[in-house]
Write a structure and sequence with these properties.
Helix content: under 10%
Number of strands: 64
Number of helices: 2
Structural class: mainly beta
Strand content: over 45%
Radius of gyration: 40 Å
Low-confidence stretches: 1-22, 55-66, 151-155
Mean pLDDT: 78
Oligomer: single chain
Length: 666
């Protein structure tokens, strides 16, 4: 069993020789695969194979690059006796074989076209960390690792996947580096070996001491340290010698190992000695002297405690926020919580962005990835966004509960009622709930209580099953509006409530469409349409069609068609025009416009029943500005409109442009 486990690990050595992906290359008779094409277009030619494929997707991390499974078909045959062929002098007897079935046999080929696993397996596939084949054992087909005798470098244990053609392996309890051909690059003489950097330098443990070596196995830093730690996974390294700490880089020591502690930040090194703190840059030059009680660094500034008081030091090494504060703690995004005389505020890079008038300021727990802090005063809670440097909401809350399951929601209590808020400060619901519980990981809703009834609250603020005789479903999360209809009632009894569950459209309509947060189109069973504006019915449901462009309503109203004796003709319909702010009629029904275009630059194209074949333009006072003389008329844009004009009534006309006065322009 141990041999099999070791074998699985060692097999990794076979696969990542290429640094590029590939595609099989097919050419020649019978469509045989004669090689593969690398990502940069280079063709690696091999002998012809019937089958060529990449490893399974689940193994791509280890095996995708540099190797391909190849296969050839072999025919089985059966001897059935002699067979006579030819005639006359060419007549002869030959052995006759009956052709059997065709079988594939598989192996693995590397980027140089060489078989690294012999092509003798009836089935071979790669998954997880190794390659498997199918063999009949005890009369049953079983999946087993490939034969260890077929695996090169079987006396080595792979410790890492290949990076740029190299892998770290262990041999005889020592660690070294090999390439894809199994050649030793770094000798097997180390107890531990780190990853090599862009400069081909790695930290290594040898005989109980740490140092830095090159890929050519030469020492950069002598093996003299008891510990060597990389803070960010790459240099510089914190090193310990005896009980003292220092910092080294790939170019040599930066800070000597003579300090009680050191911390490495993105560009600064903080050092402590005899209870005092100072700072160095990555070249080892002093940035701040070693005489501060405490020290914390940010991108441009330092928060420093000196003579028992906190302040902020700028890039010029001078106090930009005087050290007169009792406490300081880091909040995030370059900002810190500061206190003085029992009051708390927030500073960012030495500038006070929240005044010191609050009882407490602390991070909102559970908001991973959020930038929000709680600011507390007189028992009320406000929320401040550190990243945007503004208030998350203008409201002062009684309580804040953070959802632990999603971290996209915030439950707040305001004036004694609970509501649900989104990550950007938007109110997903009104503050109307008696209780909202946390959204747990495997749930799809928030358990809540509304007017004494248990309800389910969806993650976008929809009430899923509020009792009180109504069903709720959301169709406008941005506006917080919800569709309502009676339980068990007909589906034409639909209405709308706002986020505070105030009814703004009664449940009387067969269809409802939210045009924007202030305008809702309603439709009755006989397909007549109307408009609610800010919760008030402005247009009764009597219109055949209503169009809306965000500012104007274009309404189509049916009218009288024929007189009783069929001698007089009246329009079939007429268009009206309304604006929303303020909501009023601009072009009345009595104008008898048969067709109407969109309002553009203060003019609208219309077609009257008196001139049914021609279009003209009126202004928003319904005054005719351009006569009815165009066969087509389009909206104005940049001072001109595209029209179709013909001198004769029966001519097809051609397209031209006119100005606001109806004059032709280029």
């Amino acid at each position: 069993m141990k041999l099999i486990v070791i074998t699985l690990l060692k097999l990794l050595v076979l696969f990542p020789l290429l640094s590029q992906d590939y595609e099989p290359y097919r050419k020649g008779k019978r469509g045989l695969y004669t090689g593969f094409i690398t990502y940069d277009g280079k063709i690696i030619k091999t002998v012809a194979y019937d089958h060529m494929r990449k490893p399974h997707s689940s193994a791509e991390h280890y095996f995708k690059r540099g190797f391909v499974v190849v296969g050839k078909a072999r025919m089985t045959s059966e001897y059935v006796g002699e067979y006579t062929v030819g005639a006359g002098e060419n007549r002869r007897t030959v052995d006759h074989y009956k052709q059997g079935t065709s079988r594939y046999f598989y192996g693995v080929m590397n980027s140089r076209g060489k078989l690294v696993i012999p092509m003798k397996y009836k089935e071979l596939y790669i998954a997880g960390h190794t390659a498997y084949c199918r063999k009949k054992i005890g009369g049953k087909q079983k999946t087993i690792p490939i034969d260890p005798a077929d695996i090169p470098f079987y006396n080595m244990i792979l410790l890492s996947s290949f990076e740029q053609g190299l892998a770290q392996v262990k041999k005889d309890a020592k660690v070294g580096m090999i390439n894809g051909l199994g050649e030793t690059i770094v000798p097997f003489e180390y107890d531990s070996l780190g990853a090599f950097s862009e400069k081909d330098i790695a930290h290594a443990l040898k005989n109980g001491k740490w140092g830095l070596i090159t890929l050519e196995n030469s020492e950069v830093i002598p093996f003299e340290y008891d510990e060597m730690i990389s803070t960010y996974g790459h240099p510089p390294y914190r090193v310990k010698k005896g009980s003292k700490w220092g910092v080294v880089s790939e170019d040599g020591p930066i800070v000597k190992a003579e300090y009680d502690s050191v911390k490495v930040w993105s560009s600064i090194i903080l050092a402590q000695k005899d209870g005092l703190f100072g700072a160095f840059d990555y070249q080892g030059s002093p940035v701040l002297p070693l005489h501060f009680d405490e020290l914390s660094t940010r991108k441009q500034t330092f928060a420093a405690k000196y003579q028992s008081k906190w302040g902020v030091i700028g890039s010029n090494n001078k106090w930009i926020l005087k050290n007169e504060y009792d406490d300081w703690s880091y909040l995030g995004y370059g900002s810190g919580r500061i206190t003085k005389n029992g009051k708390a505020g927030i500073e960012k890079e030495g500038v006070i962005i929240v005044p010191l008038i609050y009882e407490d300021i602390r991070k909102v727990s559970g908001t991973w990835g959020w930038d929000i802090v709680k600011v507390i005063k007189d028992g009320k809670i406000k929320l401040f966004n550190l990243y945007k440097k503004n208030w998350y909401s203008s409201k002062e809350f009684d309580e804040i509960i953070i959802d632990v399951g999603k971290s996209n929601f915030l439950i707040a209590r305001y004036n004694g009622k609970y509501g649900l808020m989104g990550k950007d400060g938007n109110e997903l619901t009104g503050f109307v709930f008696d209780e909202i519980q946390r959204f747990y990981r495997n749930s799809k809703y928030f358990p809540a209580i509304l007017k004494g009834e248990k309800v389910k609250l969806s993650t976008d603020g929809r009430i899923l099953d509020y009792k009180e005789g109504l069903n709720y479903s959301s169709f406008s999360n941005e506006c917080g509006l919800q569709l309502i209809y009676p339980e068990g009632g007909a589906n034409w009894h639909k209405g709308v409530v706002d986020k505070d569950l105030r009814q703004i459209v009664p449940p009387l309509y067969s269809d409802i469409k939210v045009l924007d947060c202030e305008n809702i189109l309603v439709q009755k069973r006989k397909s007549k349409q109307g408009i609610y504006n800010k919760g008030t019915l402005k247009l009764n449901p009597k219109y055949t069609e209503i169009k809306y462009d965000g500012k104007y309503f274009y309404t189509k109203l049916d009218t009288i068609r024929w007189s009783s004796d069929s001698s007089l003709y009246w329009p079939d319909w007429s268009w009206q025009l309304f604006q929303t702010e303020p909501f009023e009629e601009l072009i009345p029904f009595e104008s008898r416009y048969r067709n109407m275009g969109k309002v553009s630059e203060g003019l609208v194209a219309v077609q009257s029943y008196q001139h049914p074949k021609y279009w003209g333009y009126v202004n928003l006072k319904n005054e005719l500005v351009i006569d009815f003389r165009f066969k087509e008329a389009h909206p104005f844009e940049d001072g001109k409109a595209r029209v179709k004009y013909s001198k004769s009534e029966w001519g097809s006309g051609k397209y031209r442009y006119i100005d606001h006065l109806g004059n032709f322009v280029e």
